[in-house]
């Protein structure tokens, strides 16, 4: 889906600067005029920080003198991938915090943990055994298929599980869209539409107050 989105944006004339670390913001009179990224300074009109679990870190490192976004913390999730045959599992299965997700090629994803471990993305044998036990108990046929991958990702979590979608209270052209925890992909279209409405000064598509900096998340 991301590859399709990127290609659509390229065809519409968008320019991407990939693998280009931002080293600073040029701030003038409460407005960001450019992004410093050696050896370039990229002029900007509007800036949206959508840096997932790293959004708070970006604020602390690059915008230390302005109002900080309330805590967005990384929440680690470990997952397993089974090399199953197509049609082994026809539907996604949810069981509390755990799930089995079949892919089109037949492989089945089993996950996931919820761990507060900072930015540590290491995996553990204890978690491997726990996830494997869950998956095989729910779908015994997985005992016949090898596990080809065990990895961890970082979700952006907030204290109340509600993302921040809105404009910065001090910098007129800075907005944030982050903190969606496990639901970033499914919330992406509505989150983007809400933020576009706020940036363009249009009546928002949904009530914007719960997602603002000042909201008691």
Describe this structure in words.
The chain is α+β, with helices and mostly antiparallel strands and 217 residues long. It has two domains: 46-72 and 161-211, no CATH class; 73-157, D-Amino Acid Oxidase, subunit A, domain 2 (D-Amino Acid Oxidase, Chain A, domain 2). Helix content is 23%, strand content 28%. Strands 6-7-8-5-9 form a five-stranded antiparallel β-sheet, covered by helices on one side. A hairpin with a 2-residue loop joins strand 6 (93-95) and strand 7 (98-102). It starts with a helix and ends in a 17-residue tail after the last helix. The model has no long low-confidence stretch (mean pLDDT 93).
Give a quick set of tags describing it.
217 residues; alpha+beta; five-stranded antiparallel β-sheet; 4 helices
Compact summary:
The chain has 217 residues and is α+β, with helices and mostly antiparallel strands. It has two domains: 46-72 and 161-211, no CATH class; 73-157, 2-Layer Sandwich (D-Amino Acid Oxidase, Chain A, domain 2), CATH 3.30.9.10.
In angstroms, what is the radius of gyration?
A: 20 Å
Question: Overall 3D geometry?
Answer: elongated
Output the number of helix runs. Answer: 4
User: Largest sheet, described in full?
Assistant: 5 strands, antiparallel
Number of domains: 2
What would the CATH topology of the largest domain be? Answer: D-Amino Acid Oxidase, Chain A, domain 2
Strand order of the largest sheet: 6-7-8-5-9
Going by CATH, the architecture of the largest domain would be 2-Layer Sandwich
Query: Helix/strand-derived class?
Result: alpha+beta
The oligomeric state is single chain
Number of strands: 11
Give me the CATH superfamily of the largest domain: D-Amino Acid Oxidase, subunit A, domain 2
* CATH class descriptor name of the largest domain: Alpha Beta
State the distance separating the first and last CA atoms: 30 Å
What is the ordering of alpha helices and beta strands?
A: HEEEEHEEEEHEEEH
Beta-strand share of residues: 25-35%
């Amino acid at each position: 889906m991301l590859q399709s989105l990127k290609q659509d944006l390229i065809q519409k004339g968008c320019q991407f600067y990939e693998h280009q670390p931002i080293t600073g913001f040029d701030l003038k009179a409460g407005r960001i005029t450019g992004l410093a990224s050696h050896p370039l300074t990229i002029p900007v009109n509007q800036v949206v920080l959508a840096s997932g679990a790293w959004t708070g870190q970006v604020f602390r490192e690059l915008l230390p003198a302005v109002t900080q976004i309330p805590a967005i913390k990384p929440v680690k999730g470990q997952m397993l991938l089974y090399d199953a045959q197509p049609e082994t599992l026809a539907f996604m299965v949810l069981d509390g915090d755990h799930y089995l997700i079949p892919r089109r090629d037949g492989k089945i994803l089993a996950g996931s943990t919820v761990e507060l471990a900072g930015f540590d993305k290491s995996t553990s044998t204890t978690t491997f055994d726990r996830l494997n036990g869950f998956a095989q108990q729910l779908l015994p046929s997985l005992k016949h298929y090898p596990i080809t991958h065990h990895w961890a990702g970082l979700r952006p979590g907030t204290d109340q599980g509600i993302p921040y979608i809105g404009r910065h209270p001090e910098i007129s052209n800075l907005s944030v869209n982050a903190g969606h925890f496990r639901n970033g992909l499914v919330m992406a279209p509505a989150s983007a539409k809400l933020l576009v409405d706020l940036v363009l000064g249009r009546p928002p598509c949904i009530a914007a107050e719960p997602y603002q900096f000042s909201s008691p998340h």
